[in-house]
C-alpha cells in the first residue's frame, strides 16, 4: 500500500495531534505530583469590606472610617479597639494568604470556636468564616466554597482578636 503526498500529510498531521494530546496529558500528570499547600487569598482580591461581624461585635465602615458596636448590649466585649486597630484588622483580612488544606482535616465541624461574617460591596450573600481547632492546629473554613485554610495561633489571634484563645482548650 502506497500513500500519496496528501495521504502522508494526513498521517503526519494526525500523528502530531496524537503526540500533542499525549504530551499535554503527561505534562499535567507529571507536574501534579505531591505539591506544597497552595497559598490563597482568604477574601476575594480587590474586595471592599462593608461590615465585619464577630459573635460579640460588629465592625462597620462609616465613610472612610470604622466603628464597632456590641451585638449584645449586656455582654462585655473582650476586645475594645481604636479606629486604627479596626482599619488594621480589616487590612489583615483583605491581604492575608493562607495555605489551603486539601486532605481531610480532623476537627469537629459542629463545634466552631468563633465565626467571622463579612459583607462585601457587590456581593449579595455574606462571606462566613468558621474557626476550628484540631490536631494542635487552627483551621479556617470558608462556608460557601468549603475551602479549609490552615493557620497557627499567631495568625488566628490576628484574625480573631475578640476571641479569648486561652479558653479554647487543647485538642
The structural class is alpha+beta
Strand order of the largest sheet: 4-3-2-6-7-8-9
The low-confidence runs, each spanning 5 or more residues with pLDDT under 50, are: none
Mean pLDDT: 83
Estimate percent helicity.
25-40%
**Radius of gyration in whole Å, from Cα?**
25 Å
Number of domains: 2
Q: How far is the N terminus from the C terminus?
A: 74 Å
Portion of residues in beta strands equals 25-35%
Number of helices: 3
Overall geometry comes to: elongated
Q: What pattern of helices and strands is seen along the backbone?
A: HEEEEHEEEEEH
Describe the sheet with the most strands.
Answer: 7 strands, antiparallel
Number of strands: 9
Transmembrane segments: 7-26
Protein name: Orphan protein
Keywords: Membrane, Transmembrane, Transmembrane helix
Organism: Pseudoalteromonas marina
Describe the structure.
The chain crosses the membrane at residues 7-26. Keywords: Membrane, Transmembrane, Transmembrane helix. With 171 residues, this protein is of the alpha+beta class. The chain folds into 2 domains: 1-33; 39-167, no CATH class. It is built from 3 helices and 9 strands; from the N terminus they run H-E-E-E-E-H-E-E-E-E-E-H. The protein has helices at residues 5-31, 83-95, 153-159; strands at residues 39-41, 49-53, 57-62, 65-70, 97-99, 114-120, 127-134, 137-142, 147-151. The model has no long low-confidence stretch (mean pLDDT 83).
Amino acid at each position: 500500500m502506497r500513500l500519496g503526498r496528501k495521504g502522508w500529510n494526513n498521517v503526519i498531521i494526525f500523528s502530531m495531534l496524537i503526540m500533542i494530546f499525549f504530551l499535554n496529558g503527561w505534562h499535567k500528570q507529571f507536574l501534579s505530583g505531591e505539591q506544597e499547600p497552595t497559598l490563597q487569598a482568604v477574601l476575594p482580591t480587590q474586595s471592599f469590606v462593608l461590615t465585619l461581624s464577630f459573635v460579640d461585635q460588629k465592625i462597620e465602615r462609616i465613610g472612610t472610617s470604622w466603628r464597632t458596636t456590641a451585638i449584645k448590649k449586656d455582654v462585655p466585649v473582650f476586645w475594645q479597639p481604636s479606629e486604627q486597630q479596626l482599619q488594621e484588622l480589616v487590612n489583615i483580612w483583605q491581604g492575608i494568604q493562607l495555605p489551603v488544606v486539601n486532605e481531610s482535616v480532623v476537627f469537629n465541624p459542629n463545634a466552631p470556636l468563633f465565626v467571622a461574617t463579612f459583607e462585601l460591596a457587590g456581593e449579595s450573600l455574606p462571606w462566613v468564616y468558621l474557626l476550628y481547632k484540631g490536631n494542635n492546629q487552627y483551621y479556617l473554613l470558608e462556608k460557601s466554597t468549603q475551602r479549609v485554610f490552615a493557620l497557627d495561633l499567631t495568625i488566628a489571634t490576628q484574625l480573631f482578636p475578640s476571641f479569648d484563645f486561652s479558653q479554647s482548650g487543647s485538642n
